[in-house]
Amino acid sequence: MAKTKISEFDSTPANNTDIDSINIAEGCAPSGINNAIRELMSQLKDQQTGASGDNFTVGGNLAVTGTSVHTGATTFTGAVVMSTALPIASGGTGASSSAAAPFAIKGANSDITSITGLTTALTVAQGGTGAATHTSKGVLIGNGTSAVTTVSPGTSGNILQSDGTSWTSSTNTGIAKAWVNSTPSTGTINAAYNVTSVVKNSTGNYTFTFTNAFANANYSAIFTILNSTVNRSVNIQSQTTTTITVACGDGLGSPSDVTGLNAVFFG
Q: Model confidence over 10-39: pLDDT tens digits?
């Protein structure tokens, strides 16, 4: 077979008797040697430019001091050692180690301090909320694998309530909206919630003022009198969304101050 490219040369010298059909066997014409050398130079040039399409195997080390251009697929079966890091533009990380890489790599990453440039929210399955924004001061509610939902605060005094299926911010009429422990004759509040003051208007007549107003005046008030000597009575004279006025008496129709007056309000 005519040896038309270097890969067809034989590693046994005696088997190389021609080069591209030019006879170089023992006793060949002198002109054959000249033509053979010229043909060999041509095949070497074709190997160098890639025109021959011939494979090239390096059994030892290959050192490239200039630019290496690969136009086809390149397969490396051993380790590739570079003196400088492969830049990002060339498919590398631009860093000599994973710790120095300018971005997160596959696996555990404990050095991520921020994520910018995301155009879509991380899904719940990805460890996100599935939403780009949330209601200010709202409560996040899980929604399975779907994006979390938000319950807004609503009005002052509202609580988070469940109907067995979902959550809402709503008024709970079963919880006291205000309470007070007072010594009304001196205008003293000993302890209270949502009651800001108690004022003595006259003997046995007191007005309590709420810190936050009720939604309407149809709330319920329960008063108890603390008096160590005799029985006393208490009657509500008026109530608004912001105040309530009561009159205490001695049980015989006469106004009378009391030692202590406690109250709980629902509405």
A: 788 878 888 888 888 888 888 878 887 888
